[in-house]
Amino acid sequence: MNALIPELKARGVEAIVVLIHEGGLPTGDYNECPDISGPIVDIVRKFDKAVDVVVTGHTHRAYVCEIDGRLVTSADKYGTLVTAIDLKLDPVTRDVISAKADNTIVRSATLAKNAEQTALLEAYDRVAAPIANRPAGSVTETLSRTPNNAGESPLGDIIADAQLAATSAASNGGAVIAFTNPGGVRTDIARQGRRRGDLRRSVRQPAVPQPAGDDDADRKADQGHAGAAMALIRSGRSILQVSKGFSYAWDSGRSRTASASSPSGCR
């Protein structure tokens, strides 16, 4: 962001708002900001002073803050809030002279559905139904996203294995290992029914744990960018789930240390 400031100023831009997928952890109500912590605090402090407002997310929290003299906002999650940001600009300098924000609760139960949008959604549901409702397989036990002490989860392993299976053919890139970000594994795959646990509701059920199509690490492996994947492993910020044929060890006290080699996967 800071590297872009001179370019923006050269184009006459003075009012600068940053939208960033990172956030903070406040302790107050949705329009307050007492004792905020988290990555966004240091990030905002490192921004060039030309940045006037920062709109954040990621942590799924709601707040209206002033950090390092800048307005910083977040609107919770899933459309539960709308943030109204009011900026006043100097007509001469064209820079922001004041900024304030208000988080408003979206009370969807009191609002009528938009008929046009409802019809559009229903039309797509009908088109997708033959694929979305097709049985996907079965599980005998719930596939949990909960990590063990090493940061590994059964569902994370299975997703990585599935990504490898989908990309291992030469026509699909010839991948030899796959990774997935645990932050993208959103929900368990629960057993359905009393016996086998058929996933017969639809193929959309196994898609729910990864609603964002989180295959970036897999794509890196597919393209041979092993260095990028190892950088993520070493960072200590994300205990990557890995496919069969690969394992790694990490030491939380030595965040830059990693080793990898095993034919049996991360077990």
Word description of this protein:
The protein has 267 residues and is of the alpha/beta class. It has two domains: 107 residues, Metallo-dependent phosphatases (Purple Acid Phosphatase, chain A, domain 2, 4-Layer Sandwich), CATH 3.60.21.10; 107 residues, no CATH class. It contains seven helices and ten strands. The strands form four sheets. It has a four-stranded mixed sheet with strand order 1-2-4-3, covered by helices on one side. It has a two-stranded antiparallel sheet with strand order 5-6. A two-stranded antiparallel sheet has the order 7-8. α2 links the parallel β1 and β2. It starts with a helix and ends in a 7-residue tail after the last strand. The C terminus is likely disordered.
What is the radius of gyration? 23 Å
Given the helix and strand composition, which structural class is it?
A: alpha/beta
Content of β-strand: 15-25%
Strands, count: 10
CATH architecture name of the largest domain: 4-Layer Sandwich
The CATH class of the largest domain, by name, is Alpha Beta
Shape designation? globular
Taken together, the total number of domains comes to 2
**CATH level-four homologous superfamily name of the largest domain:** Metallo-dependent phosphatases
Distance between the termini: 40 Å
